[in-house]
Amino acid sequence: MAFGTQDDTDEVMNEINMTPLVDVMLVLLIIFIITVPVMKHAVNIDLPRATNEAQVIKPETIRLTVDAQGAYYFNEARIEDADLAPRLQAAAAQNPQPELHIRGDKAVRYEKVAQAMAAAQHAGLHKIGFITEPDLP
């Protein structure tokens, strides 16, 4: 029992079914017709302009040097031990607060460098660093 006829030829269909394509296009058209008026009803305002570059105010750097004899140099100017604390307090009152770089001679007693650090901390300086020489091979 054959359900088909023997006369049918196995030909390839050369026609494209356009019905699903038309359906998809009509749905997209309806979506655009509905959403475009909604997008147009926005409040027109003039937005301010801004940049993302931060304004950098570089703080001053104070160089405090302690030589081999224990003498203090404030920015390469020799000062007495009693003048150290008032100068550090004046520097701590500046805005922005300067950075303190301590350069201690390797032959100086640790006590003199520790006194300078304590005076800086007591004055209220927060950024304290040490300057050293790199060890070259």
Précis, in short:
The protein has helices spanning 19-40, 81-92, 110-123; strands spanning 61-66, 72-74, 77-79, 99-104, 128-130. With 137 residues, the protein is α/β, with parallel strands linked by helices.
Question: What would you say this structure looks like, in words?
Answer:
- 35% of the residues lie in helices and 15% in strands.
- The chain is of the alpha/beta class.
- A five-stranded mixed sheet has the order 3-2-1-4-5, covered by helices on one side.
- Strand 1 and strand 2 form a beta hairpin.
- Helix 2 (81-92) packs parallel to helix 3.
- The mean pLDDT is 84.
Q: What is the average per-residue confidence, as pLDDT, rounded to a whole number?
A: 84
Strand order of the largest sheet: 3-2-1-4-5
Number of strands: 5
Count of helical stretches:
3
